[in-house]
Amino acid sequence: MSALEKAKEAAFLAGQYVAQESFVSADEIMQLARSGEVESGSRVLDLCCGIGGPALHLVSETNCDLLGVDLNEASIETARRRAQESNLRAEFLVAEVPPKLDRRFDQVMVLETVLAFRDKKSLLRSIHGLLEVHGCLLVTLEEGAPLNAREQRRMPHSDTVWLTPLDDFLQLLNKSGFAVKALMEFTESHRLTASRLAEEYRRNAEQIGRELGPATVSGLIESHELWSEWMENGRVRKYGIVAEKD
């Protein structure tokens, strides 16, 4: 296990780290899955799956039929290796998100990455087209007004941080052909996780720096401290949403 992975595992509460590259916990993943009626044989598409942590956790817990998609080839290679090592059956594909596929799914999962899409309207319409009738979108939302110029300067890689007010996102879901089934707030748990991650990254900065470089470690610490600050003062709130295709 790398120094980065060890730091992440130490930051999460016992049993909650499943190689996710985000703040969402194992229990929260399953909370969304239950609300979206993921079960054995469900056809699930995980968009921006990264190294497949939440995806493989879902397969392990539900025996669903899962396809993970990400543009990062190295991440997909890692996801495939982890699936093989865990003796779990899942398919992982290198492709643009959202992908152009000739099959439909019972659930589409977008965890901790919807903020990277500036054009959420197009994203939701594409997801709508990938779902079967009455299929469900499982998504986490970073909620808040768009970053101002000062906030953009403070946040590393701010060009991938496009916050959305909750009411705007719910209206966009409705206009895109979705009906909200469940809305759950994750702000406090994610704030605590962000704070603990920042602490672990700082504590293990030298070891992680040897793997990723000092600049990357500094960016990780800065961004996680900022997320924790914003969730504490109400600038950002975190939600889990399950929405059904009409």
What sequence of helices (H) and strands (E) makes up the elements?
A: HHEHEHEEHEHHEHHHE
Poorly predicted parts: none
Q: Which structural category fits the helices and strands?
A: alpha/beta
Task: State mean pLDDT (0 to 100 scale).
Answer: 97
Quaternary state of the chains: single chain
Characterize the structure shown.
The protein is of the alpha/beta class and 246 residues long. It has one domain (3-245): Rossmann fold, CATH 3.40.50. It is built from ten helices and seven strands. It has helices at 3-11, 26-35, 53-62, 73-85, 120-130, 149-154, 166-175, 187-203, 205-212, 214-233, and strands at residues 43-47, 65-70, 91-94, 105-110, 131-143, 178-185, 237-245. A seven-stranded mixed β-sheet has the order 3-2-1-4-5-7-6, sandwiched between helices. The model has no long low-confidence stretch (mean pLDDT 97).
